[in-house]
Amino acid sequence: EDQVTQSPEALRLQEGESSSLNCSYTVSGLRGLFWYRQDPGKGPEFLFTLYSAGEEKEKERLKATLTKKESFLHITAPKPEDSATYLCAVQAAEYGNKLVFGAGTILRVKS
Amino acid sequence: GAGVSQSPSNKVTEKGKDVELRCDPISGHTALYWYRQSLGQGLEFLIYFQGNSAPDKSGLPSDRFSAERTGGSVSTLTIQRTQQEDSAVYLCASSLNPQGAGQPQHFGDGTRLSIL
After folding, report:
1. CA angle, B16 as apex, B11 and B18 as ends, to 5°?
2. CB-based contact (8 Å) between A84 and chain B?
3. Distance of residue B106 Cα from the nearest chain A Cα, in angstroms
4. What is the 3-state secondary structure (H, E, C) of A67-97?
5. d(CA B99, CA A68)
């Protein structure tokens, strides 16, 4: 059973068309939920850490939220440069210090 | 440099050869991690170092894989007798002391390993 599941697998948006990406998790003892952005040929770039349900973080057009079972990455009025793969990862007491990643959502924003 | 540095960026080798991959973490980061990213597999954990010790090696797929870290800084991942299924991007990450609340891990751009 996957511990971290991201949906959708791929998302195509028109420039300015807001949407949300989902990350659901089934771990105990959550120590942190992390969002990363990955561009082709590059390593994951850290975006946000969320620690507890109800927490929200914002950066430019991105806003991450967390509940007890899932996290959302909201993208407001996206631009073509927001096109990337967005990865969600959890760190939990049952796994020690490693990150367990979801498969990612590939986002394409067309102008 | 300011970020995690990995070398080489690309490596092509023949099946059966040994390879060494290098990671230079962010200065001051005591924790270092190796992950592997393959098509269809996503990002999977290999090994974690705290200082020069490796308290978690649970992700190493076989005894052909080993890693070391010296001086609390640079780490080397070695794959012996490479197989085609070892082809992947090997990513290194570092973080501040991970004890307590989760510290974000910062990644390098990886080494793309291709086994012919």
Report:
1. 55
2. no
3. 6
4. CCCEEEEEECCCCHHHCEEEEEEEEEHHHCC
5. 22
Q: What is the pLDDT of residue B100?
A: 62
Q: Which residues of chain A have pLDDT under 70?
A: 1
CA nearest B105: which of A69, A67, A33? A33
Contact across the interface for A99 and B31, Cβ inside 8 Å: no
Contact residues for A93 (Cβ-Cβ < 8 A; gap 6+): A28, A29, A30, A31
Q: What is the C-alpha to C-alpha distance for residues B111 and B31, in angstroms, rounded to an integer?
A: 19
In the 8-state DSSP scheme, what is residue B91?
Answer: E
The minimal CB distance from A99 to the residues B45, B55, B110 is found for B45
> Three-state SS for B56?
strand
Q: Give the pLDDT means over successive 10-residue stretches in chain B (116 positions).
A: 92 98 96 93 93 95 97 96 97 86 91 97
